[in-house]
Amino acid sequence: MGNQYGKLFRIATWGESHGNGVGVVIDGCPPGVPLSVDEIQQELDRRRPGQSDITTPRKEADTVTILSGVDQGVTLGTPIALNVFNKDARGTSYDEMKKTFRPSHADFTYEAKFGRRMAEGGGRSSARETIGRVAAGAIARKILKHAFNLDIIAYVERVQDISMPPLETPPSLDLVEANAIRCPHPETAERMIERIKAVRAEGDSIGGIIRAHLSNVPPGWGEPVFDRLEADLAKAMLSLPATKGFEVGSGFAGTYLKGSAHNDPFINKDGKIRTTTNNSGGVQGGISNGEEIHFRVAFKPTATIIQKQQTVNREGQPIELMGKGRHDPCVLPRAVPIVEAMAALVLLDHAMRHFAQNVAFKNTEYSSTEL
Fold first, then answer.
1. Structural domain count of the chain
2. Burial, 91: exposed, middle or buried (Cβ in 10 Å; 0-12, 13-18, 19+)?
3. 171 with 117: CB under 8 angstroms?
4. How many C-beta atoms surround the C-beta of residue 119 within 10 A?
5. Fewer CB near the last or first residue (10 Å), C or N of the chain?
6. Which residues lie closer than 8 Å to 244 by C-beta, 6 or more apart?
7. Quick one: what percent of the chain has pLDDT higher than 90?
8. Among candidates 165, 206, 210, which has minimal Cα distance to 188?
């Protein structure tokens, strides 16, 4: 019921923000993939709380344990279960919120859906659920890199109205990780960090945009009509907490252009069909064309803020509520590895689907009696 993703490389996340723990079960991972806890932990460390003074102060090591599917450092082909225990949960910070609905949070909608909810930390609507996605994405990312030399890099492009200048080529991971906001333009990063600190001092929050680049994606990945590659990327990104927008290639800006300016001309470059421009963002007709896939994801301001707001309780009575607990004043820096993880999950699933349909039986000969 909405807790699973993927067709062939399939994940199911579980757990709540202030429950005993969170994790993921991965089904469909190929056997024989060398895999260590450290490789997964490296990505979780990029996502974990308390990593800088512009993120939530909640202290969680997010130490992952492999429960199944790996033996002697190699995947078995059976389901891989990964677990992370919650260590710094403080449920009492949410006592007042058990009977009231935080503005723009999932409190009301979860209760409307299930008739009950876990108020502590937002339960399953918390971004803590994404631990399972990042852990699974680390495995998908390794397979994609080994099999296709495929690179995935995301970074913070804009915080509120502070934008970095456009880049001609994707930045390196070292450049993205060089500052707390994960913006590869140092001067802009400093301004972003100062803005977040100022907003945090006011008990408020802000949002912004993350840009992602997927390089060396082979042509032919994606499915018509409903499983178009960009449609699955959009679904994956918009399934993340606090997301409100997605665009690929030229996106909404492309609506200002004429077709003659927006079209990507094909050329023969060193024996390969390429395009001279990339307004399509690497996807045409829902299928990858071999160019770099680039997209942007919009994140809204964090819903829980430390200011008094008007809301209602379960009985519909008006009440004034001030948020408590520990929250990110801006979700973007910690969302960067989550965006990368979801992109990896989408691409690996489509790679496996493409191989199964178009490659695995490509050289099989059939007799006329079998047709």
1. 1
2. middle
3. no
4. 21
5. N
6. 207, 298, 299, 300
7. 72
8. 165
Q: Which domain holds residue 306?
A: 4-370
- Say how far apart CA 146 and CA 165 lie, in whole Å: 32
3-state SS, one letter per residue, for 245-290: EEEECCHHHHHHCCHHHHCCCEEEECCEEEECCCCCCCEECCEECC
Question: What pLDDT, on a 0 to 100 scale, did the predictor assign at position 93?
Answer: 57
Of 75, 6, 84, 92, residue with least CA distance to 49: 84
DSSP states of 172-208:
PHHHHTTSTT--S-HHHHHHHHHHHHHHHHTT----E
Rg of the Cα trace of the chain? 22
pLDDT tens track for 269-304: 999 999 999 999 999 999 999 999 999 999 999 988
Domain CATH for 319: 3.60.150.10
Q: Looking only at Cα atoms, what is the longest distance across the chain?
A: 76
Place of tokens 């800006």: 253
DSSP bridge pairs for 346: none
The model's pTM is 0.94
- Cα–Cα distance, 216 to 152 (Å, whole number): 9
pLDDT of residue 211: 98
